[in-house]
Write a structure and sequence with these properties.
The complex is a heterotrimer. Chain A is mainly alpha-helical. Helices cover about 80% and strands about 5% of the residues of chain A. In chain A, strands 1-2 form a two-stranded antiparallel ribbon. In chain A, helix 1 runs antiparallel to helix 9, helix 2 packs antiparallel against helix 3 and helix 7 packs antiparallel against helix 9. Helices cover about 75% and strands about 0% of the residues of chain B. In chain B, strands 1-2 form a two-stranded antiparallel sheet. Chain B is flat, with a radius of gyration of 23 Å. Chain B starts with a helix and ends in a 12-residue tail after the last helix. Chain C is built from ten helices and ten strands. By secondary structure, chain C is of the alpha/beta class. Chain C has a single domain, classed as P-loop containing nucleotide triphosphate hydrolases (Rossmann fold, 3-Layer(aba) Sandwich), CATH 3.40.50.300. In chain C, the strands form two sheets. Chain C has a six-stranded mixed beta sheet with strand order 6-7-8-3-9-10, sandwiched between helices. A four-stranded antiparallel beta sheet of chain C has the order 2-1-4-5, covered by helices on one side. In chain C, strand 7, helix 7 and strand 8 form a beta-alpha-beta unit. Helices cover about 35% and strands about 25% of the residues of chain C. Classes of the chains: A mainly alpha, B mainly alpha, C alpha/beta. Chains in contact: A-B, B-C. Chains B and C meet through helix 7 and helix 8 of B and helix 3, strand 6, helix 4 and helix 6 of C.
């Protein structure tokens, strides 16, 4: 309830800021030019579609990154040491490289089409960008998996072994089911980081919300539009990310109490 | 040194691995200037974000409701919006509202250049996380330890200076390290507003020389190196400050 | 010990009639509630200078709160608390002046984990009293010698045993040169060997004439060392007097009942 009230107050504050910036712009605008609000309204559907692409990219990148990261994370705990070390190096590499650089890497170095058997799959820019975002997600998920598993008391491994479970059974039937809950908040945090990284793909020309906003701004070529348009874009992201952040914080508290 | 540069020229001729940033003096100059810019950008933002974090955490501990609300507003706004859009918003929209400086010959230039805006944005972005990190560190200092200090006559300021902050710093150092490393990685965003940092100059080099693959790999190695040095330094600090019997929260495992 | 049992006023007279020398600590009608829970229900108690007073009673009877009211860690709701002539109940209390005179030791030691044993002892005199570092260090070394922990001077608290930590905590309080020491169940978290170490340190203090007030479950110690024993229950002082009287012929049935469950 409290969270609802706080975010309500936040929403009112943000909208107030937006309106103030629009009014400020209207005052500045030359006589006879179209009203700012009408102009923004005109572009809203297009930019809204762009925002949907941001969400689509984030969901696909999160899915790819999570699946790959789970494998990599389990690799980090493998009893086979070359595999374990390789997984650790790969994890650290993708965790420490800047997202934007990995993005460029994929955009510029992945081929335009991929051949899977006899099938030719086209690789449009947004797919390559999604792969580029999935890579750092993978590195971070790998670390979350390792942290979650290692946070469990070692006695869990011992007791499973005493019950004659083999390593794989122990991992899938005893360890992972318990480790998933504490892994959830950092995983959701990672998603929030990812959605806030999606505007990066504008740098490589994918037509998401940020690209389209810049496009609209240059098409209109009115400096008084800058403030309200960027503010509106910030608010759109805030409206999407803030509830996720609150939910994550609540889960974190709940799991913390149980420990 | 010349021998090293020549080796890279040979590498290009013999194996086609083209890294002009090592054998061509012009490319070398701009590449290392970019590296220096990245280092400056990172260092300034790291320091400023820590200062912002400390001030914010201190304000959260005061009795003023207005100060607390403002800090909360700032933290939530900067934590929940994309840093790239923050940068564009501040550089293009807010920067556009600031007065311009008159230059020589009637030309004018903006009051703050792209580098300054990048430092401001990165500091505010990183600082919003640091506020929360410091606050949770301070909250994790046991009430009983604070009571013991109060019983010894410590006043509020001395209590913070000698007991609460030294303990809070040790408690939150792992989380702080993580955030500072992230901030250095985020400094690549300055590319988007044309600040000639490492990524920007590398892009210039690869579009001139068409050696995307080599430059990309060099760039990754450079960043992993910078981040590695910073993490190493912070880990050393952690070890140096470690005392027996004092745990950490949110630490690395 | 500075005075003898014969000189002590009768228990009933303590609260009303003030003896010629003002008591070190005087509580009158002190009340304290936490939310709807009444913890102190009108406590009246007087402690003579140089005396050792042991506060005993069942858990939850308000013993610790009583102690914390004396050095203003817990502000009182009503009543008067006067310590060495300082009105502790006064909202305009100068806490520093009070805490220079009153030292406190806690059940969980509460040493500063980021400082060595020696630094723990030196911190308050240097930063709070702003005394000369060399002078403080000499005093701290002397205190650590007295508690027989000089060899652990450069150890961090995490590397010391519970009993050692507790003795460092006592030395840390003594470094402020207090005239009154408060001990809040300081042996409750220790094993029997360590209890002995800590109690013998406290016994030494008592012999030096420092006014000591202990909340304790160590009945043997109370009987042997205390000048005055004070039994609390449900937020009031039920009965007080010299240990022989409280332990051998308690007047109140509640005291008798409590002592009947205690093993010495």
């Amino acid at each position: 309830m409290n969270a609802l009230r706080v975010s309500g107050r936040f929403g009112v504050g943000m909208m107030g800021l937006l309106l103030a910036s629009v009014l400020f712009g209207e005052v500045q605008a030359a006589d006879g030019s179209a009203s700012l609000l009408a102009t923004m309204w005109k572009w809203a559907p297009l930019i809204g579609q762009g925002f949907l692409l941001n969400i689509l990219i984030s969901v696909v990148a999160m899915t790819l990154g999570t699946v790959a990261g789970l494998g990599l994370g389990l690799g980090q705990m493998s009893p086979i040491w070359p595999l374990r070390h390789a997984a650790q190096i790969v994890t650290q590499f993708f965790r420490n490289a800047p997202w934007l650089v990995l993005l460029f890497y994929c955009i510029l170095l992945l081929p335009y089409e991929m051949r899977l058997g006899g099938l030719v799959v086209a690789m449009p820019a947004w797919i390559k960008a999604t792969v580029g975002l999935a890579l750092p997600v993978m590195g971070n998920v790998s670390e979350i998996v390792r942290g979650g598993v290692q946070a469990l008391p070692p006695a869990q491994w011992d007791s499973a072994e005493a019950l004659a479970f083999n390593r794989r059974q122990t991992l899938w039937m005893v360890i992972l089911p318990q480790a998933i809950k504490p892994m959830l908040p950092p995983w959701m945090n990672l998603y929030a980081v990812l959605i806030m990284a999606t505007p990066l793909v504008s740098v490589v020309g994918v037509e998401e919300a940020m690209t389209l906003t810049r496009f609209a701004l240059s098409a209109e070529n009115r400096s008084e539009l800058l403030l309200p348009m960027y503010l509106a874009l910030l608010i759109a992201f805030f409206a999407y990310c803030y509830p996720i952040a609150r939910w994550t914080a609540r889960l974190e508290r709940r799991f913390a109490v149980k420990l | 040194m010349n021998g090293v540069w020549e080796w890279f020229a040979w590498l290009n001729q013999a194996h086609g691995i083209n890294l002009p940033v090592f054998y061509d003096s012009y490319d070398r100059q701009r590449f290392f200037a970019g590296l220096l810019t990245t280092l400056e950008l990172s260092a300034l933002s790291v320091v400023a974000s820590v200062v912002i974090g400390l001030i914010g955490a201190w304000l959260l501990g005061t009795s003023s409701i207005i100060a607390r609300r403002l800090v909360h507003g700032y933290v939530h706004a900067f934590r929940n919006t994309p840093p790239l859009i923050q940068l564009s918003f501040l550089y293009f929209a807010v920067g556009n509202l600031l007065p311009r400086l008159e230059g020589v010959g009637g030309s004018s230039r903006p009051l703050l250049d792209g580098f300054a805006w990048a430092v401001i944005t990165l500091s505010l972005f990183g600082g919003s996380f640091n506020v929360e990190i410091f606050r949770s560190g301070i909250e994790a200092v046991p009430a009983s330890t604070i009571e013991a200090a109060e019983s010894l006559g410590f006043g509020r300021w001395r209590l913070y200076r000698h007991v609460v902050l030294p303990l809070a710093l040790r408690i939150c150092l792992p989380a702080l390290s993580n955030n500072l490393v992230n901030l250095v990685k985020t400094s690549t965003l300055a590319y988007a507003i044309g600040v000639p940092e490492l990524l920007y100059v590398s892009a210039q080099v690869w579009s001139d020389t068409m050696n995307v693959r080599e430059m990309m790999n060099l760039l990754l190695v450079a960043y992993v190196g910078i981040v590695g040095v910073l993490s190493f330094g912070l880990r050393r600090l952690e070890t140096a400050l470690r005392v027996p019997g004092l745990g950490t929260v949110g630490g690395r495992i | 010990m500075l005075d003898t049992i014969a000189e002590r006023p009768a228990p009933a007279a303590v609260a009303s009639a003030r003896p010629a020398a003002a008591p070190a600590v005087m509580l009158a009608n002190v009340r304290k509630s936490f939310g709807s829970t009444r913890v102190l229900n009108g406590v009246t108690l007087s402690v003579k200078r140089g005396d050792v007073t042991c506060v005993i009673g069942p858990s939850g009877s308000g013993k610790s709160t009583l102690l914390r009211c004396i050095n203003a860690l817990t502000p009182v709701d009503a009543g008067t608390v006067v310590v060495e002539g300082i009105a502790v109940h006064d909202p305009a209390l100068d806490k520093l002046a009070l805490r220079r005179r009153v030292g406190m030791v806690f059940q969980q030691y509460n040493l500063f984990p980021h400082k060595t044993a020696l630094e723990n002892v030196m911190m308050a005199p240097i930063h709070v009293l702003q005394e000369d570092r060399e002078e403080v260090e000499a005093r701290a070394v002397a205190l650590l010698t007295k508690i027989r922990l000089l060899d652990k001077a450069h150890c961090y608290p995490g590397a010391l045993s519970g009993g050692q930590q507790q003795r460092v905590a006592i030395a840390r309080s003594l470094a402020m040169r207090p005239t009154i020491m408060l001990f809040d169940e300081v042996t409750a978290a220790l094993d029997p060997v360590m209890v002995k170490e800590v109690l013998s340190t406290i016994r030494d203090l008592a012999e030096e004439g420092i006014t000591c007030i202990l909340v304790t479950h160590e009945m043997g110690f109370a009987r042997e060392v205390a000048d005055q024993v004070c039994f609390t229950d449900h937020g009031i002082v039920v009965e007080e007097g010299p240990p022989e009287m409280i332990f051998t012929q308690p007047e109140d049935p509640r005291t008798r009942d409590f002592l009947g469950h205690v093993t010495f």
